[in-house]
Amino acid sequence: MTVNRRFTLIQRPSGLPDASNFRLVEEAVPAIGDGEFLIRNHYVSLDPAIRNWLNETVTYMPPIAIGDALRASTVGVVEASNHPGFAVGDWVSGLNKTEEYSIGGRDPFTQKVDVGLAPSPSAFLSVAGGTGLTAWFGIEAELKPEKGQTLLVSGAAGAVGSIAGQLAKRRGARVVGIAGGAEKCARLTERYGYDAAVDYRGKDVERLSADIAAACPDGIDLVFENVGGVGLDATLLHINRKALIILCGLISEYNSPRYGTRQLIEVQMQGATIKGYHVADYGMQMGEGRRAILDLLARGELVHDEHVLEGIDNALPAFLSLFDGSNQGKVMLKLV
Ligand SMILES: NC(=O)c1ccc[n+]([C@@H]2O[C@H](COP(=O)([O-])OP(=O)(O)OC[C@H]3O[C@@H](n4cnc5c(N)ncnc54)[C@H](OP(=O)(O)O)[C@@H]3O)[C@@H](O)[C@H]2O)c1
Question: Whose CA is nearest to atom 47 of ligand 1?
């Protein structure tokens, strides 16, 4: 192969992205310099966070530059190497781009992975990658749910939420999930072990609040928030004293003007804590978290779902599935 197809940003979206924002370009496969290696990307992870990197504003990452391929985690195989630590044939994973070939070795983020330890190479982008680790540290290091407590997870049927619910259940808590639609709600209780599910679609704060109250008769002690907006407002109306709410993501605000929250008074009245949470804060403990997840997988004690589309031509529909809820698990592109 001499051509590298790359899914590039050509115009920053305002609101939901569409085809006018991106272009699939063909370039020559890049040559590697000293200390570099060429990665043939087998899987690309498309994450909600990418939407925020399309904006001009600097977040915890610089914006993706116009003309550049979308920044994304990938797993792939080294095809050529001028780096003493990486040999042809090594499987590697790291923060690269939505492209068929990437260059490694310029930063320390691309690491070798032992694909034999996981159910499949793609697992290093899903349950044993950033997604599973986000659930792991959110539950095991931040929220630490216990028997007798009620944990509410929003975006519960998604990649992070489906793992977070299972991990919390293992610790003995009552676990309630919010998701969009009857099918996803059934999956919460039947596949991921949630105690109860709440469908948020088409509901205002009042109706959602009533459904959350019914699913959480003892109130809510802990919240793993992935969505924000109306759902977070309805949740705050039911928090117990000293509740802990971690903001893992606020996907309902990524494509629309910020909703904020109108129920902050509940946080004050209940002496609760709202905390921003980012998996990168656990950078030094990633290996430990990954080993724990791989152990659970090996024992058959954790289920996970992947939503895989084939070919880089499918980058846009794969990305957009995150925002219309049509994804049924971790969204990835399979390139090889
Ligand atoms: N803090 C961190 O370190 C970190 C790391 C990874 C991910 N995250 C965050 O975690 C959240 C979940 O990410 P994921 O990768 O697991 O994605 P995901 O849950 O697999 O997919 C996104 C889901 O969000 C829901 N959604 C999308 N737009 C929505 C809207 N306007 N209102 C309500 N729900 C909406 C949809 O589910 P329904 O069908 O149920 O609506 C969709 O399936 C995101 O907020 C992401 O930014 C944070």
Answer: 249
Domain with CATH 3.40.50.720 in the chain: 130-280
Per-residue pLDDT tens digits for 110-134: 999 999 999 999 999 999 999 999 9
Please count the other Cβ atoms lying within 10 Å of the Cβ belonging to residue 318: 24
Instruction: Indicate the fold that domain 130-280 takes in CATH.
Output: Rossmann fold (3.40.50)
Ligand 1 centre distance from Cα of residue 252 (Å): 8
Q: Select from 169, 144, 164, 142 the least CA-distant residue to 153.
A: 164
pLDDT in tens, 181-235: 999 999 999 999 999 999 999 999 999 999 999 999 999 999 999 999 999 999 9
**CATH topology for 3-126+304-334?**
Quinone Oxidoreductase; Chain A, domain 1 (3.90.180)
Ligand 1, pocket-test mutation among 51, 126, 227, most atoms within 8 A of CB: 227
Give the global pTM. Answer: 0.98
Ligand 1: nearest atom to the Cα of 329: 20
- Find out whether 219 and 240 touch, Cβ atoms under 8 Å: yes
